[in-house]
């Protein structure tokens, strides 16, 4: 094990004291808070990611972003050498380190991480300092440069080198870290970014080769949320135009990040983003979030006297389209290749009930429900040969098992479905949910099926749903089980929720959980009509407010 200079760690830590009232914890997607609070957290994440790199003997990554949150927030996500997310058994150590009150506690916490390796499985892995470094990426928030300096100081305190990858989307960063640790390591992180685009676009071009452009001319209006995605999408516009995909970019940085735009806004508010032109019925539109790891499609149906109807094609619809396409291809494989392939669709409690029924009853595929957060879905997807996972908010991807890929490679010369599945596995960023990869995936599948947006939308009709959030004094008092569908505490709250649900028609449901990224409690409901869903969410919100110490206006 490397000799760690703990005196240096102590001294470096003293420049980044934790604000006394700030108690960070590793949430649904890393640490996230108002950026002004985060310097100590970033310094300590620098220590942690450097420690992890030393223990594994490989280069880890650190991405500075708060995704779809407002511009004054920021956050940090840690990335494993293979491009996956920080293992869950490291999360308590990350929280403990971030919460230390003194520099001595920081040193002690770090020492304990390094000496125990957190879990026995990482203890004996040799270090190989010198060839490893920590990779840093960030989005376009104004707080990024200061937070980056704090993280660099943390990594330097352990004597580990770093590479500045620059402005990147979160999924690009996962891909770059994966590449950096692969046997054919690129010469620079810039080259790794080029490989990212070449891999995804190259596979897309082959999937759509020779197919006619869509009837709408292939125009796709993209809301970039004024985030980092725009920075990269402009560079590939020309090449994709040649492949029949005309990306027209909006909210490319002239407005405020995520302000009335972005995938979260479009999905939760069910409105077109700001800055969009008046839409023609069924024109193709999509929206990505601030760090471009989420994607939702939307359009408008024909207008009525009350205006146009917004159609949202969310993560559930993307998952359903993808699963249907993959299932068709798998059916075409010869028995020797495709007889015993295990396919699963992984969702959370927020998945629309109609999508779950579609996958189970129409596609006849198994559905698994996990707690919110892609780390849970991703882990569950690993137990299938093809694990299709998406959150309703548009965050998801598909994982192909190594064994299946080997079989497909053997068969690709003689079987076009095997070749197509291999191309799909390249269009899809398997390290993490990726909006750009999602766009290429959806566009390729629609082109292959010669489907319009309305045909895609017609796979199933969403059950009316409603999501609200409210504030309580301490959201940690709300605890949940059964993949977050049942409330354990406060005692009695679930009984009240059940009683409310029983007043609505069969098939109605509602649940409550504390957010892992915001100081809020989320309430979700589904019912046969929109009025009933709104009403149910509001009444469940009131029950939470009364039983869990609501703050501010009652729903
Ligand atoms: P929280 O705030 O824990 O609900 C939100 C999303 C998650 C996930 C994370 C990370 C909803 C209901 N929740 O988590 O799905 O995307 O942010 O960004 O959309
Ligand atoms: Zn995001």
TrEMBL record:
<dbReference type="GO" id="GO:0046872">
    <property type="term" value="F:metal ion binding"/>
</dbReference>
<feature type="binding site">
    <location>
        <position position="289"/>
    </location>
    <ligand>
        <name>Mg(2+)</name>
    </ligand>
</feature>
<dbReference type="InterPro" id="IPR016055">
    <property type="entry name" value="A-D-PHexomutase_a/b/a-I/II/III"/>
</dbReference>
<dbReference type="InterPro" id="IPR049023">
    <property type="entry name" value="AMG1_II"/>
</dbReference>
<keyword id="KW-0597">Phosphoprotein</keyword>
<keyword id="KW-0479">Metal-binding</keyword>
<feature type="binding site">
    <location>
        <begin position="391"/>
        <end position="393"/>
    </location>
    <ligand>
        <name>substrate</name>
    </ligand>
</feature>
<feature type="binding site">
    <location>
        <position position="291"/>
    </location>
    <ligand>
        <name>Mg(2+)</name>
    </ligand>
</feature>
<dbReference type="InterPro" id="IPR016657">
    <property type="entry name" value="PAGM"/>
</dbReference>
<dbReference type="GO" id="GO:0005975">
    <property type="term" value="P:carbohydrate metabolic process"/>
</dbReference>
<dbReference type="Pfam" id="PF00408">
    <property type="entry name" value="PGM_PMM_IV"/>
</dbReference>
<feature type="binding site" description="via phosphate group">
    <location>
        <position position="67"/>
    </location>
    <ligand>
        <name>Mg(2+)</name>
    </ligand>
</feature>
<feature type="domain" description="Phosphoacetylglucosamine mutase AMG1">
    <location>
        <begin position="193"/>
        <end position="296"/>
    </location>
</feature>
<keyword id="KW-0413">Isomerase</keyword>
<feature type="domain" description="Alpha-D-phosphohexomutase alpha/beta/alpha">
    <location>
        <begin position="130"/>
        <end position="181"/>
    </location>
</feature>
<dbReference type="Pfam" id="PF02878">
    <property type="entry name" value="PGM_PMM_I"/>
</dbReference>
<dbReference type="Pfam" id="PF21404">
    <property type="entry name" value="AMG1_III"/>
</dbReference>
<dbReference type="GO" id="GO:0004610">
    <property type="term" value="F:phosphoacetylglucosamine mutase activity"/>
</dbReference>
<feature type="domain" description="Alpha-D-phosphohexomutase C-terminal">
    <location>
        <begin position="469"/>
        <end position="539"/>
    </location>
</feature>
<feature type="binding site">
    <location>
        <position position="522"/>
    </location>
    <ligand>
        <name>substrate</name>
    </ligand>
</feature>
<feature type="domain" description="Phosphoacetylglucosamine mutase AMG1">
    <location>
        <begin position="314"/>
        <end position="451"/>
    </location>
</feature>
<feature type="binding site">
    <location>
        <begin position="513"/>
        <end position="517"/>
    </location>
    <ligand>
        <name>substrate</name>
    </ligand>
</feature>
<dbReference type="InterPro" id="IPR005843">
    <property type="entry name" value="A-D-PHexomutase_C"/>
</dbReference>
<dbReference type="InterPro" id="IPR049022">
    <property type="entry name" value="AMG1_III"/>
</dbReference>
<dbReference type="GO" id="GO:0006048">
    <property type="term" value="P:UDP-N-acetylglucosamine biosynthetic process"/>
</dbReference>
<dbReference type="Pfam" id="PF21405">
    <property type="entry name" value="AMG1_II"/>
</dbReference>
<dbReference type="InterPro" id="IPR005844">
    <property type="entry name" value="A-D-PHexomutase_a/b/a-I"/>
</dbReference>
<keyword id="KW-0460">Magnesium</keyword>
<feature type="domain" description="Alpha-D-phosphohexomutase alpha/beta/alpha">
    <location>
        <begin position="56"/>
        <end position="93"/>
    </location>
</feature>
<dbReference type="InterPro" id="IPR036900">
    <property type="entry name" value="A-D-PHexomutase_C_sf"/>
</dbReference>
<feature type="binding site">
    <location>
        <position position="293"/>
    </location>
    <ligand>
        <name>Mg(2+)</name>
    </ligand>
</feature>
<protein>
    <recommendedName>
        <fullName>Phosphoacetylglucosamine mutase</fullName>
        <ecNumber>5.4.2.3</ecNumber>
    </recommendedName>
</protein>
<feature type="active site" description="Phosphoserine intermediate">
    <location>
        <position position="67"/>
    </location>
</feature>
<comment type="pathway">
    <text>Nucleotide-sugar biosynthesis; UDP-N-acetyl-alpha-D-glucosamine biosynthesis; N-acetyl-alpha-D-glucosamine 1-phosphate from alpha-D-glucosamine 6-phosphate (route I): step 2/2.</text>
</comment>
<comment type="function">
    <text>Interconverts GlcNAc-6-P and GlcNAc-1-P.</text>
</comment>
<comment type="similarity">
    <text>Belongs to the phosphohexose mutase family.</text>
</comment>
């Amino acid at each position: 094990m490397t000799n760690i200079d703990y005196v240096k760690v102590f001294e470096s830590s003293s420049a980044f004291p934790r604000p006394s009232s700030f108690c960070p914890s590793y949430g649904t997607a890393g640490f996230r808070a108002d950026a002004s609070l985060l310097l100590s957290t970033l310094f300590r994440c620098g220590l942690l990611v450097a420690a992890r790199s030393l223990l594994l003997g490989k280069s880890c990554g650190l991405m500075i972003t708060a995704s779809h949150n407002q511009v004054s927030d920021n956050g940090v996500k840690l990335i494993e050498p293979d491009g996956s997310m920080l293992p869950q058994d490291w999360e308590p150590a990350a929280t403990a380190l971030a919460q230390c009150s003194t520099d001595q506690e920081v040193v002690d916490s770090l020492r304990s991480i390094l000496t125990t390796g957190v879990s026995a499985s990482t203890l004996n892995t040799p270090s190989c300092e010198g060839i490893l470094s920590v990779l840093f990426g960030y989005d376009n928030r104004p707080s990024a440069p200061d937070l980056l300096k704090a993280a660099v100081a943390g990594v330097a305190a352990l004597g580990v080198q770093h590479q500045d990858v620059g402005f990147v989307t979160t999924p690009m960063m996962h891909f770059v870290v994966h590449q950096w640790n692969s046997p054919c390591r690129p010469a620079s992180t810039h080259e790794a970014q080029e490989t990212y685009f070449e891999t995804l676009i190259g596979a897309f071009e082959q999937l759509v080769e020779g197919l006619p452009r869509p009837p709408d001319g292939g125009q796709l209006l993209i809301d970039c949320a004024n985030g980092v995605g725009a920075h990269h999408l402009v560079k590939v516009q020309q090449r994709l135009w040649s492949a029949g995909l005309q990306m027209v970019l909006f909210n490319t940085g002239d407005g405020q990040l995520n302000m009335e735009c972005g995938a979260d806004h479009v999905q939760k508010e069910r409105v077109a983003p700001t800055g969009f032109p008046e839409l023609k019925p069924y024109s193709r539109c999509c929206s990505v979030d601030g760090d471009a790891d989420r994607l939702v499609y939307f359009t408008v149906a024909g207008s009525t006297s009350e205006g146009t109807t917004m159609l949202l094609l969310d993560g559930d619809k993307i998952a359903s389209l993808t699963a249907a396409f993959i299932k068709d291809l798998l059916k075409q494989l010869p028995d020797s290749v495709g007889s015993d392939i295990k396919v699963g669709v992984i969702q959370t409690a927020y998945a629309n009930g109609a999508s779950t029924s579609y996958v189970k009853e129409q596609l006849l595929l198994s559905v698994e429900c996990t707690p919110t957060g892609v780390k849970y879905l991703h882990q569950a997807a690993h137990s299938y040969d093809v694990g299709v996972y998406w959150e309703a908010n548009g965050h998801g991807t598909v994982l192909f098992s190594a064994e299946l890929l080997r079989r497909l490679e053997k068969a690709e010369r003689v079987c076009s479905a095997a070749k197509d599945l291999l191309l799909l596995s390249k269009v899809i960023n398997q390290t993490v949910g990726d909006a750009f990869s999602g766009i290429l995936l959806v566009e390729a599948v629609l082109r292959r099926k010669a489907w319009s947006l309305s045909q895609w939308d017609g796979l199933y009709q969403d059950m009316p749903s409603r999501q609200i959030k409210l504030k309580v004094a301490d959201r940690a008092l709300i605890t949940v089980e059964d993949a977050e569908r049942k409330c354990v505490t406060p005692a009695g709250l679930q009984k009240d929720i059940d009683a409310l649900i029983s007043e609505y028609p069969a098939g109605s449901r509602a649940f409550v959980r504390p957010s892992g990224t915001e100081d809020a409690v989320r309430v979700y409901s589904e019912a046969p009509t929109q009025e009933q869903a709104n009403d149910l969410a509001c009444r469940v919100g009131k029950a939470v407010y009364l039983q869990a110490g609501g703050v501010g206006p009652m729903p």
